[in-house]
Design brief:
Strand content: 15-25%
Helix content: 40-55%
Radius of gyration: 19 Å
Largest sheet: 7 strands, parallel
Order of helices and strands: EHEEHEHEHEEHEEEHEEHEHHHH
Structural class: alpha/beta
Number of helices: 11
Length: about 325
């Protein structure tokens, strides 16, 4: 049994498609899980309720954490630490391995221009402090011999049918609707993104290998990183529209955040946009040299082909 906690999101749904290459026993756990494969076992639970975790983990060989709690620092502080603590306890009890799908928020801001798995964990943001707390909890449990785990780390992501990506919200949707794209902080800084099907496939590969455990892995991204301006140009070309954009400086994001909650929550993370943001996944590629990374051009074209009508909706 391989179990996905947070099965309904952009990564969890794609991951379920990939796991059928390894098992026909897949458990999807979320508030409203939907079957991805015919044999999927569905568990409809509230993952914020600690009493649900033990039962969801019981009988699992591998547990993948792809849950995405509300993007709000107050929610993160309240929900994430007890959730991870309960998952660790359940994995230790039931002898299940854990794969934690992580982001880059815990890295030192000076590591952002070239991130590797060895970058120092010294977050400059409140959300980053929460993420570091979670990673520390998992690694402490690993070092204590309680569990085996993988930290599968990804940069910002984009992909088909993904409505939680800043790239989709700030560039794809406005351009598709005939408006100007919005580039955060700077149009001249490079920014890595990971294509969600690639992220899911790579997570499944790591979880089902024998030599990947008790390590941090950067999931594979196209190394030919684009600037904000180049992202606009790529998307505009695929949509066959003019590459119009405006740069939103930090103060403007702060003003918009007074009225738009998601932008208010994004304000403290703008240090990731005012400098180059390169995510180095060479360790993964050395281990899985045959992995076929989706190029940015291919990813953009796939999103436009799959989602153009929805993107054009106001």
């Amino acid at each position: 049994m391989q179990t996905i906690l947070g099965a309904g999101g952009a990564i969890g749904s794609e991951l379920a498609k990939c796991l059928v290459n390894y098992t026909d026993q897949i458990r999807l756990v979320s508030r409203n899980p939907k079957r991805v494969n015919p044999s999927d076992e569905l568990w409809a639970v509230n993952l914020q309720d600690p009493s649900t975790i033990d039962g969801a983990v019981a009988g699992s060989k591998i547990v993948y954490i792809t849950v995405g709690f509300e993007y709000n620092i107050a929610v993160w502080r309240r929900v994430w630490p007890p959730f991870i603590r309960n998952v660790i306890d359940a994995c230790a009890k039931h002898q299940a391995r854990m794969v934690f799908f992580d982001n880059v928020y815990s890295y030192h801001k000076e590591a952002i221009p070239h991130m590797t798995e060895e970058a120092p964990l010294q977050p400059p943001s409140k959300k980053g402090a929460v993420r570091k707390e979670l990673v520390d909890m998992i690694l402490d449990a690993v070092h204590a011999g309680r569990i085996e785990a993988i930290i599968a780390r990804a940069p910002d992501f984009y992909g088909p049918d993904n409505q939680t990506s800043f790239l989709i919200e700030t560039i794809f949707k406005p351009l598709a609707q005939g408006k100007r794209a919005n580039v955060l902080a700077s149009a001249d800084k490079k920014h890595s993104y990971i294509y969600t099907p690639d992220a899911a496939l790579a997570t499944a590969l790591l979880g089902n290998a024998v030599d990947t455990w008790n390590q941090t892995w950067h999931l594979p991204t196209d190394p030919n990183t684009l600037t904000g301006k180049q992202w606009v140009e790529q998307v505009a070309q695929a949509l066959q529209v003019a590459p119009k954009y405006a740069v939103l400086p930090k103060w403007a994001v702060g003003m918009i955040g007074l009225f738009v909650p998601i932008m208010r929550e994004a304000h403290e993370m703008l240090y990731q946009n005012d400098r180059d943001y390169f995510f180095d996944s060479s360790k993964f590629m050395r281990r899985f040299p045959d992995f076929d990374i989706t190029t940015y051009a291919e990813g953009v074209q796939a999103i436009v082909q799959a989602d153009a009508p929805r993107l054009r909706q106001a």
